[in-house]
């Protein structure tokens, strides 16, 4: 089979397309023939070494496919089952083994490519809007990179919950994509001051919550447009990591709350995984949530997918097809 491996940390050229043996499932695991693997920014962080993984490793934290074999003790899943998962590394390959505790069954009628595209960014948007700062009707939020993979899904879920959504996007074209997801206002933050614009929209009061996946270039400014006792949810760093800062800043800006969450800590039980994945896949199957698959690449062109993602050239989901 073919597999992508990172032998040393570095740029996209470190994504090596190699041959390997098909793995065998151990106890509690399933062997999955991958139909599509999702590309996410987290894969970039593991490749560069910002997030730690022992070398060599196979990147990719999301896929959907069909079970070929199961290991000892597996009773809930069987060969032939269509499954999807997120947050278990090794999906940039023709086959992978995954603990069945990570798996969900893909509803009938939903394509495997769609399921692969939905899991990680969809469950992220779900926990951000339902758990980190549970939105309710009348709340106002700012979503950065609102045309992005996670951003566009978050905009839609925030609208479902009745919030007013302000988005930012890097170009006019991306602003249209964010608007088509339902954002009430979109600011092209590469040429407009998003703090001033959001203050204008809110009559100077600011928003209840900022969902910030961009990090370095937006984080500190974002603290200036949150209402007293509101929340900053910093969930990524597409522009680079946020530098250490003095926590009394949170006091000065209005007794703000700050969280830096991860999907891994929001699918801690089988019930929580079933809730989030069930909502996301169910909403997509029923047409309530719209996915935007921006581009698909052959597995061997993983380097190109990473180059495009880091180069700010994408708006929506990227998939690798074995
Ligand atoms: P996106 O599709 O959002 O792609 C990243 C986007 O960030 C770009 O398209 C760009 O949009 C924006 N961006 C702003 N500044 C830069 C920059 N300097 N370089 C590159 N991009 C920039 O990716 P994902 O949806 O996969 O992930 C978004 C973020 O969310 C990542 O940081 C990721 O790690 C994080 N994340 C966190 C999770 C968690 O649980 N904590 C889970 C999932 C994702 P624009 O041009 O419009 O500014």
CATH topology-level fold name of the largest domain: Quinone Oxidoreductase, Chain A, domain 1
Coarse structural class = alpha/beta
User: Beta-strand percentage?
Assistant: 25-35%
The set of bound ligands, ions and cofactors reads: NADPH dihydro-nicotinamide-adenine-dinucleotide phosphate
Give the overall shape, derived from the CA principal axes.
globular
Radius of gyration: 20 Å
* The top level CATH class name of the largest domain: Alpha Beta
CATH superfamily of the largest domain: Medium-chain alcohol dehydrogenases, catalytic domain
Overall pLDDT level: 97
Features:
322 residues; alpha/beta; Quinone Oxidoreductase, Chain A, domain 1; Rossmann fold; six-stranded parallel β-sheet; 9 helices; 29% helix; binds NADPH dihydro-nicotinamide-adenine-dinucleotide phosphate
């Amino acid at each position: 089979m073919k597999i992508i491996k990172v032998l040393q940390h570095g740029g996209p050229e470190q994504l090596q397309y190699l041959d390997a043996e098909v793995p065998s499932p151990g106890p509690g695991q399933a062997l999955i023939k991958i139909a599509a693997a999702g590309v996410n920014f987290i894969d970039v962080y593991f490749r560069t070494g910002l997030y730690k993984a022992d070398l060599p490793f196979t990147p990719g934290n999301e896929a959907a496919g069909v079970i070929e074999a199961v290991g000892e003790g597996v009773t809930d899943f069987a060969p032939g089952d269509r499954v999807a998962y997120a947050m278990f590394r090794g999906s940039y390959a023709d086959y992978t083994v995954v603990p069945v505790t990570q798996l969900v069954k893909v509803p009938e009628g939903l394509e495997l490519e769609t399921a692969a595209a939905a899991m990680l960014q969809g469950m992220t948007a779900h926990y951000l809007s339902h758990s980190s700062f549970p939105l309710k009707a009348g709340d106002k939020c700012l979503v950065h990179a609102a045309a992005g993979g996670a951003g566009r899904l978050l905009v839609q879920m925030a609208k479902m919950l009745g919030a007013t959504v302000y988005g930012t996007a890097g170009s006019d074209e991306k602003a249209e994509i964010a608007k088509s997801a339902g954002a009430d206002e979109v600011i092209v933050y590469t040429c407009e001051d998003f703090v001033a614009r959001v203050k204008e929209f809110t009559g100077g009061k600011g928003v209840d919550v900022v969902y910030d996946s961009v990090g370095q270039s937006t984080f500190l400014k974002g603290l200036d447009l949150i209402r007293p006792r509101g929340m900053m949810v910093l969930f990524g760093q597409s522009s680079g990591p946020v530098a250490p800062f003095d926590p009394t800043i949170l006091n000065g800006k209005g007794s703000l709350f700050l969280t830096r969450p991860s999907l891994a800590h929001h699918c801690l039980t089988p019930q929580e995984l079933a809730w989030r994945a069930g909502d996301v896949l169910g909403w997509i199957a029923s047409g309530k949530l719209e996915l935007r698959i921006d581009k698909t690449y052959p597995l061997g062109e993983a380097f190109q997918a990473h180059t495009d993602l880091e180069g700010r050239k994408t708006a929506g989901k990227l998939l690798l097809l074995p």
